[in-house]
Write a structure and sequence with these properties.
The chain has 140 residues and is mainly α. It has five helices and three strands; from the N terminus they run αββαααβα. A three-stranded antiparallel beta sheet has the order 2-1-3. A hairpin with a 5-residue loop joins β1 and β2. α3 runs antiparallel to α4 and α4 packs antiparallel against α5.
Length: 140
């Protein structure tokens, strides 16, 4: 099986990144006794964890909606908005950790940003396919 459409690759990589991000350590905090502890996304923010899983599933669903290009573009836009919301929720909730003192974000927090870039690239590729299909219809 050969993947003919580059947006399918972009969407697959974005869903893998967000799936891995859902279960990775994202925040380093200082506990009450001044020890450093890594906190996973599930422990830091349940809402952010749920949004991350939702983005993963929507990316996989949009891969298989290749016949409905408008729907695929819409799902990608929803994914971008959900990913931005997820980042904002994580930042807000990590700054409001009451029992811990927030210390720093960890490197896996780059995964949603890379995912947003891949989703935008897939939107551009879908639009290019749509333009190519409409120009092909004019020739008939």
């Amino acid at each position: 099986m050969v993947i003919q459409r580059i947006q399918s690759v972009y969407l697959l990589i974005a869903s893998i990144l967000m799936g891995c991000y859902s279960f990775s350590d994202v925040i380093l905090v200082k506990t009450i006794n001044e020890t450093l502890e890594k906190v996973s996304l599930f422990d830091a923010s349940l809402i952010s964890f749920i949004i991350s899983i939702l983005v993963t599933v929507l990316s996989l669903v949009s891969i298989f909606k290749y016949k409905a290009l408008k729907l695929q573009i819409g799902l990608c836009f929803i994914n971008v908005l959900l990913t931005l919301t997820q980042i904002a929720v994580l930042v807000i909730e990590s700054l409001n950790l009451s029992a811990f003192k927030f210390d720093q974000f960890l490197m896996p927090n780059c995964m949603p940003i890379i995912s947003i870039i891949l989703l935008i690239l897939s939107i551009l590729a879908i639009k290019r396919d749509k333009k190519l299909l409409s120009s092909d219809d004019r020739l008939r």
